[in-house]
Write a structure and sequence with these properties.
Layout (H helix, E strand, L loop, with lengths): L9 H17 L9 H4 L17 E9 L23 E2 L4 E8 L6 E7 L6 H14 L5 E8 L23 H20 L2 E11 L4 E3 L9 E9 L6 E6 L12 E2 L3 H13 L3 E6 L6 E3 L2 H4 L3 H20 L5 E2 L4 E11 L3 H8 L7 E3 L11 E12 L4 E5 L3 E2 L2 H4 L27 E5 L8 E2 L17 E2 L5 E2 L10 H14 L3
Helix pairs in contact: 1-8, 3-4, 5-7
Length: about 500
């Protein structure tokens, strides 16, 4: 595609791409499109109003191994970096790890489940929810939230890393098994529930993380939620930290949960035994491990670094000594929304059957050469304790400044404009807040509009540099410039509805 730089026909190129997309859309069966209502049957909406009158904490944990036994016999593509990269061996297992939480207020329990994968679509998550709900084994369940750890060394669960850009990298049998086992972990977590106490603790990451895109801004806090069962059995830890799980680098050929597996190992080494769940945060922009450049093209060095980094994170988690008891109260509310998809590349692979995100079409919103296609997704807001913890559940890789409000000023932003958003920090109702990223969907990078820059001739197919030489790679893996505003507005509306 680089030869098009010399043609000096940007309008023609854009017209050709737009025409190809229009042609593809023309032949897309009507059954491909859906609606918010049709896709939300198994999306539990949570609490209509928030209450803080729980009696006691009841928590359960369960996990299931997702790694297939025939890893060297079948073609399982590793997701995260390169297409046509079949797994050759297993370094450590992929898991689905589920936690069930209930405040015994009579309003039902909440599930948080982490899957070791690069990302998982809302459509697949609703399939998991369907299995759980229709089993009838968890009464009065009010919310099921499933997130990806975003490991770049797990089996492809999105489809983008097959033999080539236009082939589906997902293995159907593996995906069906993943859904069944993840549902089983959720159901088993409910069955394993025990009474006990819940605690919040935090630590700061020093020298562990880096931000590869200005503004240099990321959540440096590790949040630890610890459940201490009254019967003296193993503690359960939920660990939240914002970092791409890619310590093995781009040359990896092994299945691995990446650094969260070695974080867990360190925590178990220190405690003797424990249940550990890692949930990622606001990692857009791009937030990653500090030595990524050293290991990116060196797999052997990555094998050493993934253990080193995981151990360092585990030590930081276990060093926490500022715990606060959480009052028994859990509140959650979920809202579906449509986000216009401008990304022609993602739409092409969606209509070719590679991606399976839910898409909607509105003939009333088409203007000029704009498409009228939206992705249906969802956001959730949860509180633990009496306004002690606020959790923003985001369906993709959120740029940290959308959480903090530390946006680039107009003179430094790619588009020369000021960011006009109400950030998540401005919506805060609680003493401590954090983001769960890639939660209940994966829609790619979520980028402030004032710094959203596309290649002039091949938008979404090629990345570009701005006038200051800053690379704008993340835009090629995003829905478009309006995604950030749509998500923040939906979250603001959600939080206001419970005030």
């Amino acid at each position: 595609m680089e030869f098009l730089r010399f043609l000096k026909l940007p309008e023609l190129v854009r017209g050709i791409i737009s025409g190809l997309l229009s042609l593809v859309i023309l032949f897309v069966p009507h059954s491909t499109y859906t609606t918010v209502g049709e896709t939300s049957k198994y999306m539990l909406t949570g609490d209509e109003t928030f209450s803080y009158n729980g009696e006691k904490w009841t928590v359960g944990f369960a996990k299931e191994v997702l790694t297939p036994d025939d890893i060297t016999e079948e073609s399982y593509y590793i997701a995260g970096y390169n297409t046509n990269n079949p797994a050759k061996s297993v370094l450590d297992d992929m898991y689905a790890k589920a936690v069930y939480l209930d405040d015994n207020s009579g309003r039902g329990g909440v599930v948080i489940c982490a899957v070791d994968c690069v990302g998982i679509s809302r459509k697949d998550i609703n399939d998991i929810r369907k299995i759980v709900i229709e089993s009838g084994k968890i009464p009065d369940l009010k919310s099921i939230n499933i997130c990806a750890t975003h490991t770049h060394s797990a089996i492809d669960t999105q489809g983008l890393w097959g033999k080539n850009f236009f082939s589906d990298g997902k293995n159907e049998e593996f995906m069906n098994r993943l859904k069944e086992l993840t549902a089983k972990a959720i159901i088993d977590a409910y069955s394993a529930r025990k009474d006990g106490s819940l605690y919040l603790g935090t630590a700061e990451t020093e020298g562990l993380l880096t931000d590869t895109r200005t503004p240099i801004d990321y959540d440096a806090t590790i949040t630890r939620i610890r459940f201490d069962p009254a019967d003296g059995s193993d503690d359960t830890y939920i660990v939240n930290m914002a970092c791409h799980a890619e310590c093995l680098g781009a040359r990896t050929t092994v299945v691995s949960a990446d650094f969260p597996a070695y974080m867990e190992k360190e925590m178990i080494d220190q405690t003797g035994s424990a249940n550990v769940v890692f949930i990622n945060g606001a990692i857009g922009g791009l937030i990653t491990c500090e030595k990524l450049d050293d290991v990116l093209r060196n797999f052997e060095l990555g094998l050493e670094y993934v253990r080193e980094f995981g151990k360092d994170v585990g030590e930081a988690v276990m060093s926490i000594n500022n715990e606060t008891a959480l009052q028994p109260a859990i509140n959650v509310k979920t809202q579906a929304l449509e986000i216009k998809c401008d990304n022609t590349a993602l739409l092409l692979v969606r209509f070719l059957g590679v991606l399976n995100n839910d898409v909607a079409k509105d003939n009333d919103v088409a203007k000029d050469n704009d498409n009228n296609i939206s992705i249906i997704t969802e956001v959730s807001y949860m509180e633990l304790g009496n306004m002690q913890i606020g959790v923003y559940m985001i369906p993709g890789e959120l740029s940290p400044e959308l959480e903090s409000g530390n946006f680039l000023p107009a003179e430094e932003a790619a588009n020369g404009t000021k960011a006009d958003y109400k950030s998540l920090s401005e919506m805060s109702r609680c003493e401590h807040n954090f983001v769960i990223g890639l939660c209940n969907d994966e829609i790619g990078y979520i980028i402030p509009e004032n710094d959203f820059l596309l290649h002039e001739w091949l938008p979404y197919f090629n990345n570009t540099d701005d006038e200051n030489g800053r690379r704008h790679y993340e835009e090629t893996n995003s829905l478009g410039p309006n995604a950030a505003g749509a998500i923040l507005d939906a979250m603001d509306e959600l939080i206001k509805s419970v005030e």
